[in-house]
Amino acid sequence: MLHPDRFFDPDPQIREVARDLYAMVRDLPLICPHGHVDPAILAENRPFPDPAELIIIPDHYVFRMLYSQGIPLERLGIPRGDGRPVETDHRAIWQLFAENFHLFRGTPSRCWLEHELVEVFGIEEPLCAATGQAIYDDISEKLRSEEFLPRSLFEKFRIEVLCTTDSASDRLEHHRAIRDSGWKGVVRPTFRPDAAVDIAGTGWREEIERLEQVTGKEIASYRDFVAALESRRESFRSMGATATDHGVASPRTLQLSRWEVEGIFLRALRGDASEADGELFTAHMLMESARMSVDDGLVMQLHPGCFRNHNPLIFEAFGRDKGADIPLATEYTRNLQPLLAAYGNHANLTLVVFTLDESTLSRELAPLAGHYPAMRLGPAWWFHDSREGMTRYRRRVTETAGIYNTAGFNDDTRAFPSIPARHDLCRRVDANFLAGLVAEHVIDRRDAEEMIVDLSYGLAKKTYRL
Length: 466
Prior knowledge:
4-stranded parallel sheet
């Protein structure tokens, strides 16, 4: 099912070099600096329940495609926020998935899923309606064995370090449990304060109350708020965190005066903040977050350009992160200028910027990263973390910024067993890209051999201070 030359150029001259480069990095450890695996999985180390619970229900890449073809999320067992019934027969959910597996042809999800089935679970026949139940039984049996416990898979995948994404108010009890267990696996939290910063968002007041509880201090002013965030950042650092993460609609940055930001925050506490207040506050807090990163050394990740929860019907019924986050056109040159002017030349800041708007890569982001010492470009993100998207990213960025102003690869996944599949895909794509440069005599073989190791392993480790 998996051809050894998959994703390599059919030109034999390029393909031969790509094979050799890929072979150099195929078995390197995995550096996972950004992702969304629930740390409870590794803290508790319980057997995964069944194939549907493991592969379908937590992965919005999977169920968004099925939903786009008219299959209700209830039939896929996705929990509703109101507690109304959904399908609980996971064997039936898996069969529905198998019957519609053809929908994933040509997509990155198909690449990852096939890799999981073959390389992780040893499945030797294609998934389809006729094989669905046999494959379900095969995977279920394996999931009951010690070899397929979460920590065993972590080690089998050769994960050197795995970073999760955690809210500012998270008490990090699962990370503490992992550390105290004596297990040698390295799992680090990442500080994501979005829910605390989005003063116009649903649940903001509740997040402030959680912050008060976890810090043990009242938040009655903007100064209190900043102190609470700084306290939580220090708690995250004490548990091994090396990075923060900020998901915003716009990369706009702005330094408000003390009285302006205090006024906005007090209006928010009263429930009177406007949408414009929210936009100004977010822009200001990106500046504050950069200032904090200069102070404490946490790498700052920025994920702009997403219209989150675009489908109100799905959001109201099922909540966030259900495959309805859609890219927006995004401007960086003007929006990031205040932040980069203030901190972009500082040796203690690393700002990793991601985009969903590929049109900005060669026009704005590569030139910015190619100039400011603090800035690095994150890898192709979301709908572009496919073979084509990764290749477009390399072609649009490398000519201006090189590879050493990029941050290597991250898998950005909630689906734990897909981690090695995603890294393998990227290593193949990068090997193929570099092989093309060798064939064109842009670089020589020795350059390519050093570059493929950096792209696959070294850059992520260095960028995220791991």
